[in-house]
Amino acid sequence: MSDRPIVGITLGDPWGIGPEIVAEALASRRVRAALRPRVYGDAGLLEAAARLRSVRLPRGLELVELSHLSPRERTFGRPPPGGGAVTIAYLEAAAREARRGQIAALCTAPVQKANLAAAGFRFTGHTDFLAARLGARRVVMLLVGPRLRVALATVHLPLRRVPAALSVGGIAGTLETLSDGLSRWWGLRAPRIAVCGLNPHAGEGGLLGHEEEEIIGPGIRRARRRGVRAEGPFPADSLFARQLRTGSWDAILAMTHDQGLGPLKAVDFDRAINVTLGLPLPRSSPDHGVAYDLAGKGKADATSMIEAALWAAKAAARGGA
Question: How far apart are CA 211 and CA 224, in angstroms?
């Protein structure tokens, strides 16, 4: 089993469901058979989470100890003021070892963005943090489920800021990164990508908006000149249903966060994962948040975390990193 890739796993927000779904994943026979975990976090916290879930952690588990939370500080569902600094320490350590080539892939448990910001975190989330730390020129968020793969042209932006954030070069570059990622981590040759419009009915010839004619369409054409098999822009209200019926494309590029994630989570919520394309190594996470309302109750579903860890191992074993 020595050929199993080393996958770094961060505990995420210590007061959310991250520690317990990580414990559940580490106890999974499928995960143990697929990878060698290196956990960034807190031994006492992880052991408490394992007891909560009534699971046994693997013997000889490699853990990079970065915090020593007391039992009083381990109150699930109730993050203390300044608690985001603990989560940041986990992320920084994992990124540092990824940069040094000490891990073959990275799988991150959920974080709470407001807590990170309050602790001085200047990024909107994992994706741009890892891009900065690992020197990636462009990264793309791709959500992957059994039935859909959906990438995002913009991520955590207020809707009023989306039109100004779109550009011809940005659309073309996102499509190139998406196409390269599908080839690199899934082994797809010349993957086909469908692109959503931004406006209702994809603008309806300019009647309902001009972004399709002025930005999205030209971006698609530029990407096609560079060898990307992209089509569109299509009306988003019918594109996802068409893909579910026909499977005509290998992925869909949505213009906004909710435009893409709404359909994906409606059909693939329990097993979908979040993948970052454009990094020098595979990175994945569950497709959900910290769920403070479930933390500490032993009810959180660990399926997405398990699937994320398994995908990271499979991608690392593919040899692209």
Answer: 18
Structure token pair of residue 69: 């939370």
d(CA 30, CA 83): 32
The sheet carrying 273-277 orders its strands as: 62-65, 36-41, 6-10, 105-108, 283-286, 273-277, 140-144, 149-152, 251-254, 192-196, 229-234
Residue 183 token pair: 């080839």
Same domain for 203 and 221, yes or no, is: yes
Q: Residue 165 carries which side chain, given as an amino acid letter?
A: A
Query: Residue holding tokens 């659309």?
Result: 171
Query: Residue 228: which of 265, 256, 263, 190 has the closest Cα?
Result: 190
> Is 238:222 a contact under the CB 8 Å cutoff?
no
Residue type, 311: W
pLDDT digits (tens, 9 = 90+) for 174-226: 999 999 999 999 999 999 999 999 999 999 999 999 999 999 999 999 999 99
Which residues make beta-bridge pairs with 10?
40, 108
Look up residue 19 and give its amino acid.
P
Three-state secondary structure call for residue 89:
helix
Q: Which of 77, 28, 23 lies closest to 45, judged by CA?
A: 23
Is the distance from CB of 251 to CB of 182 less than 8 angstroms? yes
What are the tokens at 47?
């052991």
> What's the CATH code of the domain at 67?
3.40.718.10
Residue 3, domain extent: 1-136+279-321
Same domain as 294, residue 271: no
Q: Which amino acid, residue 117? A: A
DSSP-derived 3-state class of residue 250? coil
* This model's pTM is above 0.85: yes
Determine the distance from the C-alpha atom of residue 31 to the mean position of all C-alpha atoms in its chain, rounded to a whole number. Answer: 18
pLDDT digits (tens, 9 = 90+) for 258-283: 999 999 999 998 899 999 999 999 99
